[in-house]
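Example 9 (inverse folding). The structure is encoded as follows.
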């Protein structure tokens, strides 16, 4: 044996390399991620379709755009969409920092400014805290500019220092510029002309709501999504967005999954279960943008619409073989037109290499679960035998290993729980055997107990009838 327990086995860090079997699908998924193509994964449940879709999103570069809706003062029901990238955001940050001006200490401003802002004593010229009215060195009333004129002193009794001083300064090129000093607690904020202009610009900016942010995950699941979930909505406001009491329309805009998946993967499990909504999905894929509007005609949101909200996603969809016919044909041709359809394998040949893969799978599942101990190599051996039996029993493949791994993963977890309750330290052969026994479905359990499913139900029916005739007899008697 190559190992004592699965703790020694290496697990690849890349989620796509954690997919066991499905070589073809993994290759295609890799290309699809690189080239931004759509993908339809077809096959029975529990063989890795969701896993591949999620793994694909890990291969995508970081998202570069953020989507916001801006308040539209002229027509609030038509908020404006805006795209920003990282450098736009950095630039805006810098500008808003510039609009903040510079904080300096009272020693760094002209003395008349320090005087008027309440820092400097007019008599002894010493600096002290602006909050202290009388100068700590000479006792003079710093706020009072009367200089011994008693009449004026009376008049200025309630004097306060100024909080802002406007003045001008001469630049090196001979021009004059406006400069403003503002008291900020015990510091002074200096706003030069540039800062004042930036402040003005900031005031003119339209208020915004970020609906799809930079920090998002590039993987969005929209399984069985309703129209609203998939395409977004505008929430109701009982005050109809009236200024003052209501909530402005742009603040009520909610993105759909298609928008949240912008630049990422939109994963739709059981594609056919979307029903008629598939049509809208098709449009979104074609246009790469989709308006957000209020979808409830009785709501105040119904009058609001945001045009051209981007939704440039890679669609990865999954389907059972039986459901293929219920996928909208133009949607399928859209996927094939710019992507791939892949049939996944329910089994893989029983080779040395594939056995190693399944060993890796056991280690992966144990590590992912976090609550169960590692398995001995003998325990893995028993599970591999079961994988072989299942390939034969379920898919009628000789010399093969099953890839219906969700079920195997259930066995591993159950065996792990048994190991935990027995405090055995590792998952043992016996734990796996017991888990296989307990994990059988009801039909298999009935077959073991009664000989066949049919006999089980006949036995049950007989017992039921006997009970009933007893009851009838009692009631009549
Ligand atoms: N090919 C696979 N490789 C590794 N693990 C798998 C594979 N298929 C299924 N599993 C395990 O089963 C779980 C469910 O698989 P999932 O990807 O949701 O299957 P599907 O989407 O095909 O129904 C996964 O989280 C993983 O633990
Ligand atoms: Mg799934």
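The amino acid assigned to each position is listed next.
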């Amino acid at each position: 044996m190559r190992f004592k327990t699965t703790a020694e086995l290496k697990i690849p860090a890349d989620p796509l390399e954690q997919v066991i079997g499905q070589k073809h699908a993994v290759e295609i998924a890799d290309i699809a991620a690189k080239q931004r193509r759509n993908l339809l994964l077809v096959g029975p449940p529990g063989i890795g379709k969701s896993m591949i879709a999620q793994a694909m999103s890990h291969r995508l570069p970081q998202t570069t755009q953020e989507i916001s809706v801006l308040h539209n003062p002229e027509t609030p029901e038509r908020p404006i969409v805006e795209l920003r990238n990282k450098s736009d955001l950095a630039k805006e940050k810098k500008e808003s920092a510039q609009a903040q001006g510079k904080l300096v200490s009272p020693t760094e401003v002209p003395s008349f400014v320090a005087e008027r802002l309440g820092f400097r004593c007019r008599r002894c010229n010493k600096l002290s805290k602006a909050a202290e009215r009388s100068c700590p060195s000479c006792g003079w009333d710093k706020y009072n500019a009367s200089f011994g004129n008693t009449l004026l002193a009376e008049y200025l009794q309630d004097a306060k220092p100024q909080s802002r001083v406007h003045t001008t300064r001469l630049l090196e090129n001979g021009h004059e510029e406006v400069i403003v000093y503002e008291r900020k607690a015990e510091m002074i904020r200096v706003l030069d002309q540039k800062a004042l202009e930036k402040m003005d610009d900031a005031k003119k900016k339209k208020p915004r709501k970020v609906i799809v942010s930079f920090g998002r995950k590039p993987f969005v699941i929209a399984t069985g999504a309703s129209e609203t979930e998939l395409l977004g909505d505008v929430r109701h406001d009982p005050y109809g967005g009236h200024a003052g009491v209501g909530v402005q329309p742009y603040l009520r805009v909610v993105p759909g999954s298609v928008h949240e998946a912008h630049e990422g993967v939109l994963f739709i499990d059981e594609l056919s279960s979307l029903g008629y909504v598939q049509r809208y999905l098709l449009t979104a894929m074609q246009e790469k943008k989709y308006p957000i509007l209020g979808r409830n005609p009785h709501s105040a949101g119904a009058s609001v619409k945001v045009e051209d909200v981007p939704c440039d996603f890679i669609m990865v969809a999954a389907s059972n073989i039986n459901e293929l016919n219920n996928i909208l044909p133009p949607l399928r041709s859209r996927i094939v037109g710019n992507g791939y359809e892949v049939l996944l394998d329910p089994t893989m040949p029983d080779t040395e290499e594939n056995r190693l893969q399944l060993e890796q799978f056991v280690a992966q599942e144990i590590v992912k679960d976090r609550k169960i101990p590692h398995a001995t190599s003998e325990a893995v051996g028993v599970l591999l035998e079961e994988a072989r039996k299942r390939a034969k029993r379920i898919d009628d493949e000789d010399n093969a290993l099953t890839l219906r791994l969700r079920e195997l993963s259930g066995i591993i977890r159950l065996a792990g729980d048994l190991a935990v309750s027995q405090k055995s330290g590792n998952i043992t052969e016996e734990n796996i055997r017991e888990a296989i026994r307990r994990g059988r479905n009801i039909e298999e359990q009935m077959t073991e107990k009664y000989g066949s499913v049919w006999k089980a139900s006949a036995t049950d029916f007989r017992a039921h009838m006997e009970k009933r005739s007893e009851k009838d007899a009692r009631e009549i008697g």
